[in-house]
Amino acid sequence: xxxxxxxxxxxxxxxxxxxxxxxxxxxxxxxxxxxxxxxxxxxxxxxxxxxxxxxxxxxxxxxxxxxxxxxxxxxxxxxxxxxxxxxxxxxxxxxxxxxxxxxxxxxxxxxxxxxxxxxxxxxxxxxxxxxxxxxxxxxxxxxxxxxxxxxxxxxxxxxxxxxxxxxxxxxxxxxxxxxxxxxxxxxxxxxxxxxxxxxxxxxxxxxxxxxxxxxxxxxxxxxxxxxxxxxxxxxxxxxxxxxxxxxxxxxxxxxxxxxxxxxxxxxxxxxxxxxxxxxxxxxxxxxxxxxxxxxxxxxxxxxxxxxxxxxxxxxxxxxxxxxxxxxxxxxxxxxxxxxxxxxxxxxxxxxxxxxxxxxxxxxxxxxxxxxxxxxxxxxxxxxxxxxxxxxxxxxxxxxxxxxxxxxxxxxxxxxxxxxxxxxxxxxxxxxxxxxxxxxxxxxxxxxxxxxxxxxxxxxxxxxxxxxxxxxxxxxxxxxxxxxxxxxxxxxxxxxxxxxxxxxxxxxxxxxxxxxxxxxxxxxxxxxxxxxxxxxxxxxxxxxxxxxxxxxxxxxxxxxxxxxxxx
Amino acid sequence: xxxxxxxxxxxxxxxxxxxxxxxxxxxxxxxxxxxxxxxxxxxxxxxxxxxxxxxxxxxxxxxxxxxxxxxxxxxxxxxxxxxxxxxxxxxxxxxxxxxxxxxxxxxxxxxxxxxxxxxxxxxxxxxxxxxxxxxxxxxxxxxxxxxxxxxxxxxxxxxxxxxxxxxxxxxxxxxxxxxxxxxxxxxxxxxxxxxxxxxxxxxxxxxxxxxxxxxxxxxxxxxxxxxxxxxxxxxxxxxxxxxxxxxxxxxxxxxxxxxxxxxxxxxxxxxxxxxxxxxxxxxxxxxxxxxxxxxxxxxxxxxxxxxxxxxxxxxxxxxxxxxxxxxxxxxxxxxxxxxxxxxxxxxxxxxxxxxxxxxxxxxxxxxxxxxxxxxxxxxxxxxxxxxxxxxxxxxxxxxxxxxxxxxxxxxxxxxxxxxxxxxxxxxxxxxxxxxxxxxxxxxxxxxxxxxxxxxxxxxxxxxxxxxxxxxxxxxxxxxxxxxxxxxxxxxxxxxxxxxxxxxxxxxxxxxxxxxxxxxxxxxxxxxxxxxxxxxxxxxxxxxxxxxxxxxxxxxxxxxxxxxxxx
Lengths: 566, 566
Prior knowledge:
The structure is a homodimer. By secondary structure, the first copy, chain A, is an alpha/beta fold. The first copy, chain A, contains 16 helices and 28 strands. The mean pLDDT of chain A is about 95. Chains A and B meet through strand 2, strand 3, helix 8 and helix 9 of A and strand 2, strand 3, helix 8 and helix 9 of B.
């Protein structure tokens, strides 16, 4: 079947030109760009004065952070012109191991958006993490047989690379042996340490927050992924990269993006629009989001409107609004006037589906699980700060006679992290400050990177209620107070993802976040966000794991009670 | 072993900058680019005020056209800064088939220059050609196991691509299946036919002679190889490509280059110098000749001075002269102050060596082999023109009573093409005009693309002498007159290549060309050049094969005698 797009303004990502030419597509391929007659095609699409550009590619995203299945994510992204994403299933791999990766691959087959995969390189992210699985080099190898696997995901373990740790180096070697790419993640690394990290074969970074940081990487041969997600928003700072000589070594990525933002602002199209509003060339931004991402990942014949290229094409109203009207993917129309054309979900084998949908392996919690035996008065308290992942260690004198040490007036709440993968019964108990909750409790299974069950509360009864609710619904976010559940967002897939649509997940997420604020939490504080990183012992300074408190700076376990020391 | 290059001016091919930085090399890899201390290395090279740039890559060359073995070619090219070439062994494959490709791979191992290979796609180039071998898709496949094989060589058979011929399409599919590149060759193809050709998966071209021709290809996604060889010299016309947006999709190649030019002018360095003299940026030219060629061929960590990259580096006096002083290849010094450091030749297995050194399979010729039975008077004569590969058909009335139709005064000489691969006894006999030889004969085994034995003479005795001399020395160029050999250049390897050095081959070649002119050939006429293409029935209009005359325009065999028609 031949389809002729007549008279469009075609963005040429090889030359930065916009040409008024016809585009002839046969089945999934573009076969002609130039002057073609209507008689040469079976179907004519009059695209006069509309802009045609290649489908957008998100060069680095964690699907789990959208809380959507690949299919539901596709529904919202494709409308915004994204025809390919490169996803790192790091989160689900921490919960379900290779089954999690298999689930992501299987559930993303045959979607109207191509989902490429990078294999998670750091599961677990630290030795303190009690994850659902430990992935070593040999566990990953078989996945390279899948053509959609483009390489090794972000090598966050840069201390391991610099120290020459064998397992991480072996994973990198494997990616090269299979001819694949190795993603980087090394914020603020510079100079000789950066040289060392890059020389290990790590060829991109998406953590740049300043132009000079990005320019050093480009000079040293890395590709820079300009990230604009929900939490991390680097576009504005990195606008200088849209100029030469930098732009040819950049691409656009979202990394972590919430469904509400996807719905309201968009995806890669939103980043392009922002760049245009800031006075940058739309064509430069489109080039970054198409041919450059494709070239970097060695995706041949993807990312351009040219003969032989896969017909992943967008019809935009114009280059100012970058508003996506129609989307063709592999030559098939998948978005019509802004509406996604329905498609069949991929069928995931029962064994894999069962594994990811039953990821909670923990006994029902009891009230006594939350108690802590007082061994003194002076305690280490995790001090969180609004919109920051960094925490501080605060020493406070607690009165264990009153509410088991919890002191709502001084904003000292109880914190528990319960191992939920292998039913070990491990539970880390301590105290946290900075949340400002006056009553009730919140619990979640989204707790980077090990995604154990985490609870913060003003009293142990509500903590128990919230935690067991999470367990019973197989994961999610829950808000409880005064013995009842106020709001919840179930995430039954690995405790990370919903099966609902982006709209419904966004709605549930809003309800949960609003419920938190009825508990007295100040506006501007997002406890679920803080809570999601309170258990990640790679970000300073004091974190809580299933095994207890970790001093991240010294990488040592420390007791809650200061007096208990040595 | 760590080697530190202190204080050089380093060309950054990612940013087009020149930075004064130190470069730290460990074994074959660059591991640091920045400020490094002498204590961090075992060996210090003070390169203050010298320019460091990546080793040059010739993106498309036929080694056979240099008449040198890979080792001898390396000796001359590496001195000029070439650390990698991408060679298409099309000529030797026409003679020796897969043994020829195997010879090229084996004899190019472990040289101070990396020799990558493209598999010849068109052996034979036409059905009229009686070659030493016919290479079908299945004959090529096994070679893809070799990592130095980067893809399928120039697909000259564009009519076959446009007509959907299965064997050529299968060869292209195979290259893609192995994740490799497909080189193009389609001079003057444009518009829809070019779209069709490109859509088949052919992603570059080195035959562009005009900027607009090149720009159309770049717009359509092809890479353009700017060629400056011995015969075809396109650089001057293509200088506009050194500007944006074109330069990022170009590389530099020589295609066919004679040893005298390599010695006297240089190789890729010569093209860069020419571009600089024409006012273009040396850095743009270096970028084309390094990272861009490497990126196109998916040679990872090649073509730049950056951490993780292979230490193929040149030390130049400056960016104006582009004079290569020292060359490091895989971190080892291979050229010191312009002098190549001697190296061990590769050992080629006897079986392969024997096959390419005994490529003449033809009985000794007899005088009667050159006779032609007169079937009339009006004959088709091949009319050649100085420095052109095109020929014309001229009709002349010949007197067969006198010198068997040869008429030196009217410049009508005898031409014979004898099949020499399978001893079939096939010999095409006819007449040629435009050479201007007054006495003697010349013969050669360099006769594109089938490389049969070709002879042109003023009398049959000297033709016999020259032809049998070629046979007896196993190939080469020979000039004979008055019953003796005046000059010769033996090419015993497949009848195409010498085992001597570039200097000696150039000397022999000069002697042969000078001897021709003692036979009355005017200056400016190069009969060996005309003769080399007189048997190639893809260039219009009238050509001679082992089976007789071919009208290239109609692609039909035609008899010598006009009266004999039908």
